[in-house]
C-alpha cells in the first residue's frame, strides 16, 4: 500500500448520518413581476437611488421584468417597500 493509512480506513463502512438538514441561505435577490417597458425608467430610477444593480429581461410579449443582484437587508427592504407602494408582484429569493 502507498500512504500511511491502514487498510481498515479504506474498507470499514461509514456510520449512517440521520436527520441532516441543509440550511438554505438567504440571497436577498428580488425578481419582479412583468411590467410595461414604459415603467422601466421609473424602475431604473428607484434602483439607482438605492444603489442597486439588476438585470432587465424583455419578454417576447413586450413586457419587462428585473432580477436584482444580491444586496443588503436595508436595500432589499427599501425596494420591497417601493414595489409594495406600486402594488407590483415580486419574489424574494
TrEMBL record:
It comes from the Bacteria. Residues 49-92 form the N-acetylmuramoyl-l-alanine amidase C-terminal domain. Pfam families: CBD_PlyG (PF12123). This is N-acetylmuramoyl-l-alanine amidase C-terminal domain-containing protein.
Amino acid at each position: 500500500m502507498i500512504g500511511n493509512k491502514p487498510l481498515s480506513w479504506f474498507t470499514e463502512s461509514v456510520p449512517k448520518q440521520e436527520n441532516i438538514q441543509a440550511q438554505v441561505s438567504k440571497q436577498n435577490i428580488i425578481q419582479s413581476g412583468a411590467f410595461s417597458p414604459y415603467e422601466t425608467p421609473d424602475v431604473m430610477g428607484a434602483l439607482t437611488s438605492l444603489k442597486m444593480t439588476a438585470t432587465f429581461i424583455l419578454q417576447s410579449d413586450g413586457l419587462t421584468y428585473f432580477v436584482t443582484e444580491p444586496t443588503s437587508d436595508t436595500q432589499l427592504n427599501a425596494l420591497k417597500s417601493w414595489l409594495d407602494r406600486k402594488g407590483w408582484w415580486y419574489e424574494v429569493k
